[in-house]
Amino acid sequence: MKRIPCMEAAVAVMESEGVDTIFGIPGAAILPLYAALRTSSIKHLTVRHEEGGTHAADGWSRATGKVGVCIGTSGPAGTNMITGLYTAMADSIPMICITGQAARAKLHQEAFQAVDIVEIAKPVTKWAVQLKEPAQAAWVFREAFRIAQSGRPGPVLIDLPIDVQRGTCLYDSTVDAPLPIEVPEPSPQGIRAAVQMLLQAERPLILAGGGVIIANAADELRNLAERLQIPVQTTLMGKGAFPEDHPLFAGMAGIQTQTLWGNAAFLESDLVLAVGARFGDRHTGDLETYRKGRKFIHVDIEPTQLGKVFEPDLGIVGHARSTLAALAFQAQELAPPRPTGRWPERVGELRSTLVRRDDFDAVPIKPPRVYRELNEFYGPDTTFVTAIGLYQIWSGQFQRTFLPRRYLVCGQAGPLGWEIPAAIGVKCAYPDRSVVAVVGDYSFQFLMEEIAVAAQYRIPFVIVMVNNEYLGLIRQAELPYDMNFAVDLHYGEGGIDHVKLMDAFGCPARRVDRPEDIAGALAWATAEAEHAQVPVLVEVMVEREANAAMGPSLDNIVEYEPLPNLVPTANTA
């Protein structure tokens, strides 16, 4: 074997693992790795903040299903990455963050920008490791990719002392390859028991979580649902796992991101098959209401997820794709294909009658109208990226999604500022795909410096800002306290002008105050982004004190707008 710089071996491993784009910031303690990148096929984008780099790598990973990579130097570069690592850990996103480090001999002497980033990162990673010897470089990187993708995916941190980076190792890429990824198969006994429960149930639902997306199991999900004629709901992380125009789509249940008819269908169900879902608190709400009157089958790739929130009637450990395929095969063995029955028809009734308005013509603009325009203007292949706040909740309630990996949201950690860098990552992964970042005015300002990255590297996408000049979700949470404290941003009185801000980055922007102008602004922004090859902003000024429908339990959602065409939701199946 040939002796080469150990960082060249590390870069060769990343290339063979399918990494074509890396997001990072060079610094003195990471320069040997950057020297190796110079002659590689990997494109590097210099971000403006290491947190932004992690979110860009996160977005790239969510769009591709592969392992995203972010690089930073020592000290604060690593600590700036912690939010991104936590976000990836919470949402099961495979990602590797690489940090530079002081020389090994200096680590105990409080050297400049020397911090024990491995210990800091351990709670928010699947594996945090410091490279000790140059000869380990290729194999530590191989193991990092294996761990990031095996079982429940997640992030890894690799810390690289500068003296180790300067070392050499024996390595030949022609005799090396990615390590096998563990894919646990479900037990035949569990599969048979699950199918029998599904066949015996009168009103079963399938609940598709983010694990179905991660496992690329949308086809298997649809096959099982159609064979047994079982309506399908998705969680927020599972949006896109099942097409929302399918007759068997049963909406979303939850206390924040939910549809009215989705909650009603869930409450009428008697069995829930949950696949790759965590039973997060924003989905379940009050557990007594959520569980009462129905049985649960919980399928997850991670054994310790079973029983974590509540004990299921049947737990199955398995990869979502192979488990759904096994369920469909077992159903074929036990019963003929089912015709459409009363239960799917009942779900269809709820879907057509328990709706929320989105056709408001009022000024100021009501937020649901924004999402109606997005649904009507953009096609099913558009990738939407959104983060946290009232605009995420409205998005979950009103936006329609038809394909996997086209609705990307930081669901569990919910860091403000995630959308812009994540959209950059998505557009880098799929340059020909239309990408739209739906942002709040406050969230936009968290990492707005990353607009400079998209402008520099000519990365075009559309930003739709839902601007209520408030910390809207916090203001709504303050209502029970009878206060309105520290949430008023009121940019209209001498504050930030987002249109001028975009102009400072060299990017076009337009403000919209009337609902009839939204569609034209979207058309303009989409064309302008492709023409100028930069991000383009549409700032929609919405009602300042608009609230999103939510509540403590599935049967106690507070609606702030009148509901048309309501029908009784009593169980008539």
UniProtKB/TrEMBL annotation:
Residues 388-540 form the Thiamine pyrophosphate enzyme TPP-binding domain. Pathway: Amino-acid biosynthesis; L-valine biosynthesis; L-valine from pyruvate: step 1/4; Amino-acid biosynthesis; L-isoleucine biosynthesis; L-isoleucine from 2-oxobutanoate: step 1/4. Residues 191-327 form the Thiamine pyrophosphate enzyme central domain. Pfam families: TPP_enzyme_C, TPP_enzyme_M, TPP_enzyme_N. Its EC number is 2.2.1.6. It comes from the Bacteria. It is an enzyme of class 2 (transferase). It catalyses: 2 pyruvate + H(+) = (2S)-2-acetolactate + CO2. Keywords: Amino-acid biosynthesis, Branched-chain amino acid biosynthesis, FAD, Flavoprotein, Thiamine pyrophosphate. Residues 8-119 form the Thiamine pyrophosphate enzyme N-terminal TPP-binding domain. Transmembrane segments: none annotated. Belongs to the TPP enzyme family. PANTHER family: GLYOXYLATE CARBOLIGASE (PTHR18968:SF14), THIAMINE PYROPHOSPHATE ENZYMES (PTHR18968). This is acetolactate synthase. It comes from Fodinicola feengrottensis.
